[in-house]
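Hi V.,

Quick status before I head out on leave. The structure for the redesign project is tokenized and pasted below; the design run finished overnight.
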């Protein structure tokens, strides 16, 4: 996991109105963890958004709070449900020599062999929950789907991971799979519907004949 420095400054616990004024230039945040009391801070919005754009969220943020340094991970980000702006960040202080629980994004690379035959690649699991020391946490897990044919499946247990990582997600969880060609699926559905329609028509004819006999 990459380590990125971010400067921050302390802030007093503020009212909603005061926080809104800060948000023009800063993002309110808090850092907490073993050995420190919860510390309200402000981080520069432009600096933080630059980190997100180029590095993502799966990194160690080395917070420099007015000279005091705290290695942290981004534990939570609160967003405005309409504008999607970041309203608040929770930074969790970590000890670099001790494992932490986190989730790592899973991305696929390549085009599956089965897709070229008309199959459908289904990406089922987008994050892997793991436990590892912060510096041993990968930024992402890449899954090469190129060799996958129709009906092939990759499970969590099939992922190539460092022995420094403990996997928390169930090993039998499906990561990706290649389904049958879409055309075949449509044809099967159509055939089933036609068969059901024929059965219904046959049932109606029998009912009419039965009524005629009664008459």
């Amino acid at each position: 996991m990459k380590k990125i420095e971010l400067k921050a400054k302390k802030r007093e616990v503020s009212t909603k109105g005061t926080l809104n004024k800060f948000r023009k230039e800063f993002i309110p945040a808090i850092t907490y963890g073993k050995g420190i009391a919860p510390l309200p801070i402000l981080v520069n919005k432009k600096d933080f958004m630059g980190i997100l754009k180029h590095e993502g969220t799966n990194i160690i943020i080395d917070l420099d709070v007015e000279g005091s340094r705290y290695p942290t991970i981004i534990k939570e980000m609160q967003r405005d449900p309409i504008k999607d702006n970041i309203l608040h960040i929770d930074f969790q202080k970590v000890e670099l020599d001790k494992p932490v629980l986190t989730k790592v994004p899973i991305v696929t690379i390549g085009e599956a062999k089965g897709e070229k035959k008309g199959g459908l690649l289904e990406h089922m699991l987008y994050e892997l929950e793991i436990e590892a020391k912060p510096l041993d946490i990968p930024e992402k897990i890449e899954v090469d789907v190129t060799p996958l044919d129709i009906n092939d499946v990759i499970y969590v247990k099939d992922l190539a991971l460092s022995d420094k990582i403990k996997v928390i997600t169930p090993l039998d969880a499906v990561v990706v799979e290649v389904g049958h060609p879409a055309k075949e699926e449509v044809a099967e559905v159509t055939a089933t519907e036609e068969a059901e329609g024929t059965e219904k028509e046959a049932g109606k004819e029998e009912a009419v004949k039965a009524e005629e006999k009664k008459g």
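Above is the designed sequence. The radius of gyration is 27 Å.

G. will cover questions while I'm gone.

Best,
W.
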